[in-house]
Amino acid sequence: VRHDRRASVRRRHGGPRIFSVAEVAFAAKDTLEDRFSNFWVEGEVSSYRGPNRQGHHWFSLSDESAKAVLPVTLWAMDAQRHRLELRNGMRLRIRGHLTVYPGNGRFQLVAKQMVPAGEGDLAAKFEALKKKLQAEGLLDEARKRGLPLRPKAIGVVTSQSSAALRDVIRVAHNRGNVRLIVADATVQGERAPRSVALAIENLAKHPDVEVMIVTRGGGSAEDLWGFNHEDIARAIARCPIPVVCGIGHESDISIAELVADVRASTPSNAAELVVREDEALRESLFSLERRLQRSLESTIQSARLRLTRFERRLGTPRNNDTRRALEALARRAENAMRGQLESERDSISRLRSRLEKKEPRKRLREQRARLRELETALREAQEQRLRTDRKSLENSLSSQEKSLALQLASARERFARAAATLDALSPLAVLTRGYSLVLAGERAVRDASELKPGDRVSIRFRKGSATAVIDQTEGSADAEESR
């Protein structure tokens, strides 16, 4: 036991040596740190609850097969360097040293370096395949091909249900009128390399595809590992058309991206690289035109200088024929240069004209003008229909009015005849001929047998009425007839 910063050794007379608690704790600490100062250990994270306020982490590394647990301490400074998202259940390889904290006697592993289990093996495989393909020249920049200026059909190799495909579709259709031909592929797991390689080979046979995008969204190193497979790398290298590869995020680099003609940082960036905006194409054309003009002017000037040198070397021609021949050659050279310049200008002008025809703003103006024409035609058609319907309605109302007038006249005539018939049948009309009407209450008396002495009756005349009391009755009209 070391004696610096230790309590003094106490001995009992004739007895065993007695150590203090501090001596034992510090002795264990020194022994562990000496023997286990720098080593790797692998296990499964457990009992992790996140960092404390100072950013320190405490968790355990478990070995389920042996039911063993090793406490781990990760100080805040080391945690910031690694930036791993720790979670229970993940497997880690940790480099560090063992120690004992004397304050509580806690045995622990102090972590200095951490990598997900298997990442070291994957990194070694990545470098081995990279060196192999590099030796074959598949990573050389000289073999990389440029992208077509304005492709009409673009092949896309990715999962049909992925967010990466939705990003490519959105960006491509927002930037231009292009056709996307999708080859569905498994982009994660053991089947991914063969599935992606086969999709690349099949899509490369499509006669319309001018450029290909191979892509998938972000994920862990294990999720993206399939794109570090040799099958995919060789399928990209064999592809007869340019390939743009965007796997994961910008920080993720795969073998497929190294072999591809162009590497994209994300799926959206892959679509941006392949489908250029019209303004960018226009600037590119203008730049090409300026470069071409400067190049041709430089070529003409160089030719003139060479011609001047030839003239000086030949000296002054002794006859006019030689001078005329030289002048003709100079004119022919200058005319050829100017003709080539005009031809290139015409080609650029045609490209610019095609570009302007497909310019979204011009198409938008044409569609707006067409929309205004359709609105005007629709408004005129509605007004014409309204006039026709109004005239038809007026004619219908006029016809109905005439019909109603005729029906009313006919009804009035029928009413007059009914009124005349009613007047003729009315008992009141009989009174005008001198007859009277005897009423017992509201009932007309038709037979004397309906009355008895003492009944009061009302007698109605043509003009006026009178009240009478029955003294006696002499029988009914039927009795008189029977006599």
What can be said about the biggest beta sheet? 5 strands, mixed, barrel
Q: Residue ranges: pLDDT <50 for 5 or more in a row?
A: 1-12, 479-483
Q: Supply Rg.
A: 56 Å
Structure annotation, total helices: 14
Q: Helices and strands, in N-to-C order?
A: EEHEEEHEEHEHEHEHHEHEHHHHHEEEEH
**Helix-and-strand structural type:** alpha/beta
Q: How widely separated are the two ends?
A: 169 Å
User: Helical percent range?
Assistant: 40-55%
β content, as a range? 15-25%
- DSSP strand count: 16
Q: Order of strands in the sheet with the most strands?
A: 3-4-5-7-6
Overall pLDDT metric: 82
Name the shape in a single word: flat
Write the layout of secondary structure elements.
Blueprint: E1 10-11, E2 17-18, H1 21-35, E3 39-46, E4 57-63, E5 68-74, H2 76-82, E6 91-101, E7 106-116, H3 119-135, E8 153-158, H4 163-175, E9 179-184, H5 192-204, E10 211-216, H6 221-224, H7 230-238, E11 243-247, H8 255-259, E12 262-263, H9 267-274, H10 278-314, H11 320-357, H12 360-425, H13 427-431, E13 437-440, E14 443-444, E15 456-460, E16 465-469, H14 477-482
Parallel strand pairs: 5-7, 8-9, 8-10, 10-11, 11-12
Antiparallel strand pairs: 1-2, 3-4, 3-6, 4-5, 6-7, 13-14, 13-15, 15-16
Helix pairs in contact: 4-9, 5-7, 10-11
Task: Report on this structure.
- There is one protein chain.
- 17% of the residues are buried.
- The chain has 483 residues and is α/β, with parallel strands linked by helices.
- The chain is built from 14 helices and 16 strands.
- It starts with 9 loop residues before the first strand and ends with a helix.
- It is flat, with a radius of gyration of 56 Å.
- Residues 1-12 and 479-483 have low confidence and may be disordered.
- A hairpin with a 4-residue loop joins strand 4 and strand 5 (68-74).
- It has helices spanning 21-35, 76-82, 119-135, 163-175, 192-204, 221-224, 230-238, 255-259, 267-274, 278-314, 320-357, 360-425, 427-431, 477-482; strands spanning 10-11, 17-18, 39-46, 57-63, 68-74, 91-101, 106-116, 153-158, 179-184, 211-216, 243-247, 262-263, 437-440, 443-444, 456-460, 465-469.
- Strands 3-4-5-7-6 form a 5-stranded mixed barrel. A 5-stranded parallel β-sheet has the order 9-8-10-11-12.
- The longest helix has 66 residues, at 360-425.
